[in-house]
Amino acid sequence: MSNATQVFADHRELLFSIVYNTLGSVTDTEDVLQETWLAWSSRDPDQIEHPRAYLVRIAVNQALAHQTALRRRRETYVGSWLPEPLLTAADAADHAVRSDSLSIALLVVLETLTPLERAVFILHEVFAYQHTEIAAMLDRTPAAVRQLAHRAREHVQARRPRTQIDPHLQQQVTERFVAAAFGGDLNALMELLAPEVTLWSDGGGKSSAAGPRPIHGRDNVARVLLASAAQPFEDLDIQYQEVNGEPSAVLFVQNAPYAVMVVDLTPDGTQVRDIYTVSNPDKLTHIAERSTE
Questions:
Q1: Which of 84, 98, 279, 116 is nearest to 199 (CA)?
Q2: Same domain, 117 and 202
Q3: Tally of CB atoms within 10 A around 109
Q4: I need a labelling partner for 179 at 20 to 30 A (CA). Which of 8, 92, 131, 141 fits?
Q5: Residue 154 domain-assigned?
Q6: Closest by Cα among 107, 123, 116 to 148
Q7: Is the dihedral of CA 290, 262, 204, 206 positive or negative?
Q8: Range with the lowest mean pLDDT among 143-147, 192-196, 288-292?
Q9: Number of folded domains that form the chain
Q10: Amino acid 82: pLDDT
Q11: pTM for this prediction
């Protein structure tokens, strides 16, 4: 392995995590990493004083360039757009690459930031880069970066205050939620759903399981969930796996990935306030690949 290849391989985990959290798409992240590798391999690594900083700068700016095309695609996307789910279980392949992936719920909030605000938030809040380091990466002044960071942090905090839910509790609630929905238990489902619960479904126009827009309110969500779960599934298999760092349900039909369901709990962990269902088959290819390894 050449020196350039080894250095890139040593930093690939970090680059993947930064870019994925910036874009929310595995496919686009892989494209950015390929572009980063091409830019890196054309240089002599011995002439670069700080390879890590150099690689992160290339990757972040390539990701920002991809944001424009991504946002155009999402403008014509059928239904709600949700991030592409990532398996992050301890026994999943390349677990270290995925360990810094943000939750689906937080990635949804980050979609409401500008591309620059999102990049700054991820670099500073998630990967602990200093404002001066980020300023050099983005060709901005430290003062401008501090302002971007402040706006992003306030926006995220207002829409999603930081709370720590015990993973075991989230696992239990997730299993109870799935059992109630697929078991047709309306009473149990109503107890689990918060009054203001929202159901977000991403089928990309390719899955009949997803509605065209978010559904709000306990009664409406319960009715849609029970109707969807009541349809006949041939050889349905529900696996509980860690997705984007959280216990989640992965549904397989005839051994093929059908949907990923992630529940976001109220701050006290007693009820479900958001349900994210990704059933667009284009976003489940990596789930399929990792579940068959």
A1: 279
A2: no
A3: 18
A4: 92
A5: yes
A6: 116
A7: positive
A8: 288-292
A9: 2
A10: 95
A11: 0.89
Residue 231 lies in a domain: yes
Higher per-residue confidence, 183 vs 165: 183
- Which pLDDT value is given to residue 206? 81
CA separation, residue 203 to residues 96, 213, 282, 284 (Å): 29, 10, 9, 11
Question: Using the 8-state DSSP alphabet, how is residue 126 labeled?
Answer: I
Residue 261 belongs to a domain with what CATH number?
Answer: 3.10.450.50
Q: Do 69 and 117 fall into the same domain?
A: yes
- Provide the domain limits for residue 185: 167-291
Place of tokens 């479900």: 272
Q: What is the DSSP letter of 270?
A: S
Q: Tens of pLDDT along 44-91?
A: 878 888 999 999 999 999 999 998 888 888 888 888 899 999 988 655
Q: In this structure, is residue 37 part of a structural domain?
A: yes
246-253 and 193-202 as β-strands: parallel, antiparallel, unpaired?
A: unpaired
Residue whose C-alpha is closest to residue 149's, from 164, 135, 163:
135
Residue with structure tokens 């997730």?
A: 174
pLDDT confidence of residue 187? 96
Which of 159, 184, 199 marks a domain boundary?
A: 159
